[in-house]
Amino acid sequence: MAFEGAIFDCDGTLLDSLPAWQGLEGYLCSLCDGRVTREDRALLTTFTIPETARWFHESFGLGKNVSQVVGLMDEYLVEQYACAQLLPGVAEFLEECARAGVKMSVASSSSPAYLESGLRASGIRDYFSAVYSVEQFGTTKREPHIYDRARETLGTPKQATWGFEDSQYAAETLKRAGYRVVGIYDPADVASCDMAIAGEHSPDVLVTNFSELAPERLISA
Question: The whole model's pTM is what?
Protein backbone atom coordinates (compact mmCIF):
# COMPACT_ATOMS: atom_id res chain seq x y z
CA MET A 1 0.00 0.00 0.00
CA ALA A 2 1.23 3.49 -0.84
CA PHE A 3 2.36 5.96 1.82
CA GLU A 4 1.45 9.34 0.37
CA GLY A 5 0.37 11.51 3.31
CA ALA A 6 1.29 12.01 6.96
CA ILE A 7 -0.58 13.90 9.69
CA PHE A 8 1.52 14.52 12.79
CA ASP A 9 0.55 15.45 16.30
CA CYS A 10 3.07 17.92 17.74
CA ASP A 11 3.39 17.76 21.54
CA GLY A 12 5.03 14.51 22.63
CA THR A 13 5.23 13.32 19.02
CA LEU A 14 7.48 15.81 17.23
CA LEU A 15 8.47 18.19 20.05
CA ASP A 16 9.31 17.64 23.69
CA SER A 17 7.16 20.55 24.86
CA LEU A 18 6.42 19.08 28.30
CA PRO A 19 8.95 21.37 30.07
CA ALA A 20 7.05 24.40 28.78
CA TRP A 21 3.83 23.23 30.39
CA GLN A 22 5.55 22.05 33.56
CA GLY A 23 7.02 25.51 34.07
CA LEU A 24 3.79 27.41 33.46
CA GLU A 25 2.37 26.97 36.96
CA GLY A 26 5.57 28.22 38.60
CA TYR A 27 5.70 31.19 36.26
CA LEU A 28 2.13 32.26 37.07
CA CYS A 29 2.69 31.76 40.79
CA SER A 30 5.79 33.94 40.63
CA LEU A 31 3.70 36.80 39.24
CA CYS A 32 1.16 36.76 42.07
CA ASP A 33 2.94 35.09 44.97
CA GLY A 34 0.47 32.23 44.67
CA ARG A 35 0.73 28.82 46.30
CA VAL A 36 -0.72 25.79 44.52
CA THR A 37 -1.63 22.71 46.56
CA ARG A 38 -1.50 19.13 45.31
CA GLU A 39 -5.29 19.16 45.03
CA ASP A 40 -5.17 22.42 43.06
CA ARG A 41 -2.60 20.95 40.72
CA ALA A 42 -4.75 17.89 40.01
CA LEU A 43 -7.57 20.25 39.05
CA LEU A 44 -5.36 22.51 36.92
CA THR A 45 -4.19 19.60 34.77
CA THR A 46 -7.77 19.24 33.48
CA PHE A 47 -8.15 22.93 32.58
CA THR A 48 -7.90 24.71 29.25
CA ILE A 49 -5.82 27.88 28.93
CA PRO A 50 -8.83 30.19 29.58
CA GLU A 51 -9.95 28.05 32.54
CA THR A 52 -6.45 28.16 34.05
CA ALA A 53 -6.32 31.93 33.54
CA ARG A 54 -9.67 32.36 35.27
CA TRP A 55 -8.57 30.19 38.21
CA PHE A 56 -5.38 32.23 38.78
CA HIS A 57 -7.26 35.50 38.39
CA GLU A 58 -10.02 34.53 40.82
CA SER A 59 -7.78 32.67 43.30
CA PHE A 60 -4.86 35.11 43.52
CA GLY A 61 -6.01 38.27 41.77
CA LEU A 62 -3.52 37.79 38.93
CA GLY A 63 -4.04 40.31 36.13
CA LYS A 64 -6.66 42.98 35.64
CA ASN A 65 -8.94 40.41 34.04
CA VAL A 66 -8.91 36.87 32.62
CA SER A 67 -7.95 38.06 29.14
CA GLN A 68 -4.78 39.66 30.49
CA VAL A 69 -3.81 36.41 32.22
CA VAL A 70 -4.39 34.50 28.99
CA GLY A 71 -2.04 36.97 27.31
CA LEU A 72 0.63 36.35 29.94
CA MET A 73 0.29 32.60 29.46
CA ASP A 74 0.47 32.87 25.69
CA GLU A 75 3.59 35.04 25.84
CA TYR A 76 5.31 32.61 28.20
CA LEU A 77 4.42 29.50 26.21
CA VAL A 78 5.42 30.98 22.85
CA GLU A 79 8.85 31.71 24.33
CA GLN A 80 9.11 28.26 25.89
CA TYR A 81 8.04 26.43 22.73
CA ALA A 82 10.89 28.17 20.93
CA CYS A 83 13.21 26.23 23.26
CA ALA A 84 11.50 22.85 22.81
CA GLN A 85 13.71 20.05 21.54
CA LEU A 86 12.90 17.63 18.75
CA LEU A 87 12.20 14.12 19.96
CA PRO A 88 14.62 11.34 18.89
CA GLY A 89 14.63 10.51 15.19
CA VAL A 90 12.13 13.19 14.17
CA ALA A 91 14.41 15.24 11.92
CA GLU A 92 15.70 12.17 10.11
CA PHE A 93 12.23 10.68 9.60
CA LEU A 94 10.79 13.91 8.22
CA GLU A 95 13.69 14.24 5.80
CA GLU A 96 13.21 10.65 4.63
CA CYS A 97 9.51 11.30 4.09
CA ALA A 98 10.25 14.47 2.13
CA ARG A 99 12.70 12.62 -0.11
CA ALA A 100 10.09 9.93 -0.72
CA GLY A 101 7.54 12.54 -1.78
CA VAL A 102 5.27 12.09 1.23
CA LYS A 103 3.07 15.14 1.88
CA MET A 104 2.95 16.22 5.53
CA SER A 105 0.83 18.33 7.85
CA VAL A 106 0.40 18.90 11.60
CA ALA A 107 -2.82 18.49 13.59
CA SER A 108 -2.55 19.53 17.24
CA SER A 109 -4.55 20.52 20.30
CA SER A 110 -2.12 23.35 21.10
CA SER A 111 -2.47 26.98 20.13
CA PRO A 112 -1.36 27.93 16.59
CA ALA A 113 1.07 30.47 18.05
CA TYR A 114 2.78 27.84 20.20
CA LEU A 115 2.99 25.41 17.29
CA GLU A 116 4.49 27.93 14.89
CA SER A 117 7.01 29.02 17.52
CA GLY A 118 8.18 25.49 18.26
CA LEU A 119 8.19 24.16 14.71
CA ARG A 120 10.06 27.15 13.31
CA ALA A 121 12.64 27.29 16.10
CA SER A 122 13.35 23.58 15.75
CA GLY A 123 13.84 23.93 12.00
CA ILE A 124 11.07 21.61 10.78
CA ARG A 125 8.22 23.99 9.86
CA ASP A 126 8.96 23.91 6.14
CA TYR A 127 8.25 20.18 5.94
CA PHE A 128 4.53 20.79 6.50
CA SER A 129 1.97 22.00 3.99
CA ALA A 130 -0.25 23.18 6.84
CA VAL A 131 -0.31 23.38 10.63
CA TYR A 132 -3.75 23.07 12.20
CA SER A 133 -5.00 23.45 15.77
CA VAL A 134 -8.35 22.28 17.11
CA GLU A 135 -8.76 25.89 18.28
CA GLN A 136 -9.27 26.88 14.66
CA PHE A 137 -12.28 24.58 14.32
CA GLY A 138 -13.82 24.72 17.78
CA THR A 139 -13.48 20.96 18.16
CA THR A 140 -11.28 18.43 19.95
CA LYS A 141 -9.35 15.37 18.85
CA ARG A 142 -12.24 13.23 19.99
CA GLU A 143 -13.69 14.18 16.61
CA PRO A 144 -11.91 13.49 13.28
CA HIS A 145 -12.57 16.94 11.76
CA ILE A 146 -9.03 18.27 12.23
CA TYR A 147 -7.53 15.14 10.66
CA ASP A 148 -9.92 15.25 7.72
CA ARG A 149 -9.13 18.92 7.14
CA ALA A 150 -5.40 18.22 7.27
CA ARG A 151 -5.77 15.38 4.76
CA GLU A 152 -7.88 17.52 2.42
CA THR A 153 -5.07 20.07 2.39
CA LEU A 154 -2.58 17.36 1.47
CA GLY A 155 -4.88 15.98 -1.22
CA THR A 156 -4.03 12.38 -0.35
CA PRO A 157 -6.42 9.41 -0.18
CA LYS A 158 -7.36 8.28 3.32
CA GLN A 159 -6.08 4.73 2.78
CA ALA A 160 -2.62 6.11 1.93
CA THR A 161 -2.52 8.68 4.77
CA TRP A 162 -1.03 7.84 8.16
CA GLY A 163 -1.66 9.63 11.45
CA PHE A 164 1.07 9.90 14.11
CA GLU A 165 -0.09 10.29 17.74
CA ASP A 166 1.19 9.80 21.28
CA SER A 167 -2.22 9.76 23.01
CA GLN A 168 -4.55 6.80 23.02
CA TYR A 169 -7.79 8.73 22.62
CA ALA A 170 -6.49 10.61 19.56
CA ALA A 171 -5.12 7.42 18.01
CA GLU A 172 -8.54 5.82 18.50
CA THR A 173 -10.24 8.78 16.80
CA LEU A 174 -7.98 8.31 13.79
CA LYS A 175 -8.64 4.56 13.65
CA ARG A 176 -12.40 4.98 13.89
CA ALA A 177 -12.25 7.52 11.06
CA GLY A 178 -10.48 5.00 8.82
CA TYR A 179 -6.87 6.21 9.01
CA ARG A 180 -3.83 4.05 9.55
CA VAL A 181 -1.98 5.01 12.71
CA VAL A 182 1.52 5.06 14.16
CA GLY A 183 1.43 5.22 17.96
CA ILE A 184 4.37 6.83 19.77
CA TYR A 185 4.39 5.39 23.27
CA ASP A 186 6.46 5.58 26.43
CA PRO A 187 7.13 2.09 27.84
CA ALA A 188 7.57 3.61 31.31
CA ASP A 189 4.10 5.17 31.22
CA VAL A 190 1.24 2.77 31.94
CA ALA A 191 -1.35 5.04 30.32
CA SER A 192 0.79 5.38 27.20
CA CYS A 193 1.22 1.62 26.91
CA ASP A 194 -2.56 1.21 26.92
CA MET A 195 -2.37 2.02 23.20
CA ALA A 196 -0.97 -1.47 22.68
CA ILE A 197 -4.08 -3.11 24.13
CA ALA A 198 -6.77 -0.88 22.67
CA GLY A 199 -8.30 -3.74 20.69
CA GLU A 200 -9.63 -3.00 17.24
CA HIS A 201 -8.73 0.67 17.64
CA SER A 202 -5.08 0.11 18.58
CA PRO A 203 -2.43 1.68 16.29
CA ASP A 204 -1.26 -0.27 13.27
CA VAL A 205 2.38 0.38 14.23
CA LEU A 206 3.80 1.08 17.69
CA VAL A 207 7.23 2.65 18.30
CA THR A 208 8.89 4.39 21.22
CA ASN A 209 10.41 7.04 18.94
CA PHE A 210 11.01 7.82 15.28
CA SER A 211 14.47 6.27 15.35
CA GLU A 212 12.66 2.92 15.14
CA LEU A 213 10.72 3.89 12.05
CA ALA A 214 11.38 4.31 8.33
CA PRO A 215 8.87 5.29 5.59
CA GLU A 216 9.39 1.91 3.91
CA ARG A 217 7.91 0.16 6.95
CA LEU A 218 4.61 1.99 6.50
CA ILE A 219 4.35 1.02 2.85
CA SER A 220 4.53 -2.65 3.76
CA ALA A 221 2.50 -2.46 7.01
Answer: 0.91
